[in-house]
Write a structure and sequence with these properties.
The structure is a single chain. The chain has 2 domains: 236 residues, no CATH class; 114 residues, abc type-2 transporter like domain (abc type-2 transporter like fold), CATH 3.40.1710.10. Helix 3 links the parallel strand 1 and strand 2. It has 14 helices and 4 strands. By secondary structure, it is mainly alpha-helical.
Amino acid sequence: MRLLALIRKEFIQIIRDPRTLALTFAMPVIQLFLLGYAATNDVRNIALAVFDQDRSPASRELLDAYRAADYFRIDFDVDSEIEIRQLIDSGAARAGMVIPPDYSEQIAAGHTARVAFVIDGSDPTLAGTALSAATLIGQAQSTDIAVERLSRQGQLAAMDPAIEVRTQVWYNPDLVSAYYMIPALIGMILQFLTTILTSTAIVRERERGTIEQLIITPIRSWELMIGKLAPYVIVAFIDTIEILIAGILIFGVPINGSLPLLLLLSGLFLVSTLGIGLLISTISNTQQEAMLTSIFTMLPSIFLSGFFFPLAAMPQFLQWISYAIPLRYFLIVVRGIVLKGVGASALLPEIIALSVFAFIVMGVAAKRFHKRLD
């Protein structure tokens, strides 16, 4: 009864604080929109400036090939290479194409027509995609022209390839970035909210002087700890379901695995994040200090967990540090269940790691919490 009364008190305190409610339920949806739409590696509609000196059907066919690929958007038809440089320098265009005046003549004569393609490399991600797309589109157009030449000469059979590579993409055939990002948002938002809310909730009691009133009651320290944490566990599960529903309805993210297993392992991850929040509360004296410390712990979790950047591309010492971040393991879990539909057996190493983290972090936090109350 004492524990239930404490949990009820904490729920009343949450409801009476509209800022906490807004933070708890509105922020996941806002982050979902921002990161779901903005945090994407899909590069489309690159502004392209074209200096077509040939103005022939052959050059227009080449431009149509680039226009149809959806990677480039021909925004500028210029009359000199100087204009291309000016547009790229100003950022209005991110790439430029120069078609020589003898382009159609070279094609008709069966020679190699050389087209210049300039790319703004100030953004490596965009430049890399533009470089690959420009090369592939040019190669495809070159192959079409070669097939047309051989067809006219009756030698089309000579074009049969010696090797044919047939590719398949599993789990995300259209390579939609949102399918990769939305499941990861569950882990990031769970850690962000539970860590901040837990750490500030306990410090708030100390700031207001009500923690002493709780200490002199018959409530044991473990009851106080559970009573403070339990409401945020429930709130975190509501946020998890909220993100999943929004991801399905807005972004069409498929849930290929077991939802009960996902919720169960989310609970295991929550033990670690709540333990981190509880630990922060024992070393902080004010809510501002607790919030800043929570944000500080989030930075390595975001950048070293594989949320934004692949771990394999990082230096070796950063990969070693990432093993000490619970979010790293939970991202593998949530992406494996949501996208791949795998079961617990395929995620056993991650489940063991999360269990170890939950035991250590919550144990240390509970011990410090008990001493701080004493």
